[in-house]
């Protein structure tokens, strides 16, 4: 597995831009502004996390600098000392070593930041606790950085189809309520339709996420799996008939 080279990433972005322009009509300046906002949102690239351990102030400074574009408002707080301490207290983040945070801490914090924006904290904990139990530090056959790289590459590859889907929804919403004559009413209803379509998409995916967590990551599902495993081990083996 490797991270995309700059030239390859640039060619993909250019192809995306050309295709999206073909999907949009000239009068869709607002949708173009939305796509520009999406494009301007930056993410922490694999390999950008420092190779040295960091103190708390250095951690928050790094996150502020690298996730600045994801803020909705200029005064939004991305990651504070209180947040990090709470993550540790609630077993979302392993404790620092002598007040220093390793690369694995940083990648775990990035996962927390992205996941908590779409999932409640208890679900985020259910998903991340087994991840850190298996792969944090010297544990596991693969380290946290490689896991982050793998997921980052997959999600980058999906960004084009995601953007195309948003454009399709926008174009569909612009076709709605065509019979409404008052332009102000029509504009509002079409904007509301676009939001509703996006929300429905998020709702369906959120429902799937909750189902996966309940079936595989919840305490009850883990206990059920452990009980089944214990019963299987305790069950006497069948003797071969001669």
Description:
- The chain has 9 helices and no strands.
- It has one domain (32-220).
- 67% of the residues lie in helices and 0% in strands.
- The chain is an all-alpha fold and 242 residues long.
- α1 (6-23) packs parallel to α7, α5 (103-116) runs antiparallel to α6 (121-135) and α7 (144-175) runs antiparallel to α8.
Task: Write a compact overview of the structure shown.
This protein is mostly helical and 242 residues long. It has helices spanning 6-23, 29-40, 56-66, 81-89, 103-116, 121-135, 144-175, 183-216, 219-234.
- Give the percentage of residues in beta strands: under 5%
Shape: elongated
In helices, the fraction of residues equals: 55-70%
The structure class reads mainly alpha
SSE run? HHHHHHHHH
Note the gap between the termini.
Answer: 51 Å
Main beta sheet strand tally, sense and closure: none
Number of helices: 9
Parts with pLDDT < 50 across at least 5 consecutive residues: 1-5
């Amino acid at each position: 597995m490797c991270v995309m080279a700059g030239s390859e990433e640039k060619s993909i972005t250019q192809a995306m831009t050309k295709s999206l322009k073909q999907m949009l009509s000239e009068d869709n300046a607002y949708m173009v502004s939305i796509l520009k906002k999406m494009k301007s949102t930056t993410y922490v690239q694999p390999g950008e996390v420092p190779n040295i351990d960091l103190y708390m102030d250095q951690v928050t400074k790094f996150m502020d600098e690298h996730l600045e574009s994801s803020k909705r408002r200029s005064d939004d707080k991305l990651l504070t000392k209180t947040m990090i301490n709470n993550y540790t207290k609630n077993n979302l983040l392993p404790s620092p070593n002598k007040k220093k945070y390793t690369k694995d801490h940083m990648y775990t914090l990035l996962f927390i930041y992205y996941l908590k924006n779409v999932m409640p904290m208890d679900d985020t904990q259910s998903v991340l606790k087994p991840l850190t139990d298996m792969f944090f530090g010297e544990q596991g056959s693969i380290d946290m950085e490689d896991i982050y790289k793998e997921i980052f590459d997959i999600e980058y590859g999906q960004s084009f189809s995601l953007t195309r889907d948003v454009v399709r929804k926008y174009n569909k919403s612009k076709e709605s309520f065509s019979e409404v004559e008052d332009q102000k009413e029509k504009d509002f209803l079409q904007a509301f339709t676009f939001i509703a379509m996006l929300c429905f998409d998020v709702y369906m995916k959120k429902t799937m996420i909750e189902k996966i967590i309940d079936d595989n990551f919840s305490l009850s599902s883990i206990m059920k799996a452990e009980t089944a495993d214990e019963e299987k081990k305790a069950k006497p083996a069948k003797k071969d008939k001669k």
